[in-house]
Amino acid sequence: DYLDLYIPLFIGEITDGLTSHTIEMQTIDKTILLMLVLSIAIAVFRFFWHYFIFGTSQKIINSLRKDIFEKLETLSQAYFNKNKTGDIMTRFTNDLDAIEGATGFVVMMSFDAVVLTIMVVYKMITHVSLTLTILTLIPMALVAVFSIILGKKFDEKYFAKQKAFGHLNDAVQESVTAVRVIKAFVQEEKQLEHFKKVNDYNRKANADISVLRAIFWPVLETFIGLSYVVAIILGGYYCLIGEITLGKFITFSSYIGTLFWPMIIVGDIVSVISEASASLKRINEIFDAKVDIVNSENMIDIQELKGEIVFDKVDFRYEENLPLALEDINVKIRKGEMFAILGRTGCGKTTMVNLIARVYDVTSGNIYIDGNNIKDIPLNVLRSNIGYVPQDNFLFSETLKENISFGKLDATDQEIYEACKIADIHDNIMSFPNKYETMLGERGVTLSGGQKQRTSIARAIIKDSPILIMDDSLSAVDTDTEDTIINNLKRIRKDKTTIMIAHRVSTVQSADHILVLEDGKIAEYGTYQQLLDKNGLFTQMVEKQQLEKQLITVEQGGN
Hints:
Layout: H1 6-20, H2 25-74, H3 77-82, H4 85-128, H5 130-177, H6 179-184, H7 188-240, H8 246-287, E1 309-316, E2 326-333, E3 338-343, H9 349-356, E4 364-369, E5 372-373, H10 379-384, E6 386-389, H11 400-404, H12 413-422, H13 426-430, H14 449-461, E7 467-471, H15 479-492, E8 497-502, E9 513-518, E10 521-526, H16 528-534, H17 537-558
Parallel strand pairs: 3-8, 3-9, 6-7, 7-8
Antiparallel strand pairs: 1-2, 1-4, 4-5, 9-10
């Protein structure tokens, strides 16, 4: 910026020299050569300046992205229940891109514009004329006022734009994930209509910004044009009356031209800052999110758990304004037993096991493991001692081997094979062309439902944790495979606690104790035979499922 000031000065000096016939050709040659050297120096310095600014910007965004990811990992399931995946992804991508523009482009351009403006105005005042400079800069000063007024409008519109793009991402992500269901129910038209609405909302949000830009740029150019008109008229007049020389008039005109760039860039700076400001608000919403599952101040020093679990007068609700999902749960799960939880859909089975791993915290009451309140057990210790097979059998878009070893990253091939044999999936995997190196599609889409369940079971088994939770993990396998897996689990987990959630009565026949839930409350508890003898809800479920099985057999026989 400093070197930039000398080129107009040199041009003015050459002009005055030529006008007064006091300059020699040799001096002109030297001046032109010096101007050429200055231009090269300016280019070199600007390269390093840009490299430094944008390099620093990348480091800032990289650090910010890491911080956001770390924050998300500390948030409980409740946060992700309220915030859609597509919107979170938008904050990771578009919002961070907007902030990157502010930390790179805006910092560089703002610094350049401010420094250059100060230096140019100083030279205009000291080298040409104070009065001429003030009169010429009045229209340019109005640009700053106009930018501040319109900047607030930009903030609002950019926030709406980023929010609209988040909704658009949600719609796309949801449709792609649910493509099988959409096609199965022939709902392509309905989804298309929904997407059109979301897409139109996004278009309108962007159109609002385009309107502001359409207003901003003509007004900006008008103010700049006024400055140039004032400079030409007054500068020409001052030159005619002898206040300034022709060379100084040309230098002054060049300086006005130099000031055009800072004034024009104001528009871009206002736009980028407004977008970044809106994006930063959305990023801060993540950082401001309350971390509600945290370690207790009374944390105990423990590394390994044995597996005795006690629910003591436990109540739980998902939100303050919602009814209790679990009410007055009192039960003891002994170390080393296979414990089953049975009940109709929505009765609270998954909620109950989620409380053990502190996916959620109890509303009232306490849960103890080995006599210790789970809130006093370090979170990483608690969860590292629990193996979990989720209801949705989530698998990563990696190889089968990588998915299974996710439960134990340093697992040997032999350990992986053994876990898969216990889960009765080894033979299936060996029949694949690439065996354990088979690459899975998104969420394991290339596997059948039963294969996904058994792969998830193998992933939990390899962890060999004191507590294993299986959330309806055998619903997609036949009864023979189910019997094989359960028998294998009883054999290898004699001294470890296994909790099984099930809908099918056949799944829980081998359990040491069975808990029957109904509407979030304990309906019945006991061994398989004890529950049958009670002739209650459990007996009704057994008889109903036996009848359904008989009807299926009759239908198959008729066919």
